[in-house]
Amino acid sequence: MDAVNKMIGFYKKAVLENYYNFNGRATLPEYWWFVLANVIVAFVIGIVDGILASVIGIAILGTIYSLAVLLPSLGVAARRLHDTGKSGWNLLWTLIPLLGAIYVIYLLVQKGETGKNAFGEPVKK
Q1: Helix (H), strand (E), coil (C) string for 2-52
Q2: 120 and 84 in contact (C-beta within 8 Å)?
Q3: What is the mean pLDDT of the chain?
Q4: What percent of the chain has pLDDT over 90?
Q5: Rounded alpha-carbon distances, angstroms, from residue 45 to 39, 59, 90
Q6: Total domains in the fold of the chain
Q7: Could you report the per-residue pLDDT of 51-89, keeping only the tens digit for each?
Q8: pTM of the model
């Protein structure tokens, strides 16, 4: 149950507390728990959207959800890169098909810097 609480806590932190915050740092667990929660929510919304599409012919919930979490997703990813000492602008590498996304994922899984860096103090656990 502790893992579920962590996931919900990090999701709420990214979406409610840091909706469009691109400053500071985000820990490795903070980022990946948010990603997992986001995937689960998107999956459930996809199922509901599929049911609605078959009943009323419109599937728009997924689009609305994607737009709603766009800024929090970019913000937490930028803060995660800041934790590794990299600029959030490195997210633009994803515009290069496949290789760019692989490179950004490589950056996102790196261990964060232990001390203060150009983006601030490490996040307290």
Answers
A1: HHHHHHHHHHHHHHHHCCCCCCCCCCHHHHHHHHHHHHHHHHHHHHHHHHH
A2: no
A3: 94
A4: 90
A5: 10, 10, 29
A6: 1
A7: 998 998 888 999 999 999 999 999 999 999 999 999 999
A8: 0.92
Within-domain flag for 119: no
Confidence class for position 107, pLDDT limits 50, 70, 90:
very high
**Alpha carbon distance 81, 104 (integer Å):** 9
Are 83 and 123 in contact by the 8 Å Cβ rule? The answer is yes
Residue with tokens 């948010």: 34
Domain holding 73, by residue range, is 2-80
Measured distance CA(91)–CA(11) in Å, rounded:
20
Please indicate, yes or no, if residue 101 is contained in any of the structural domains: no
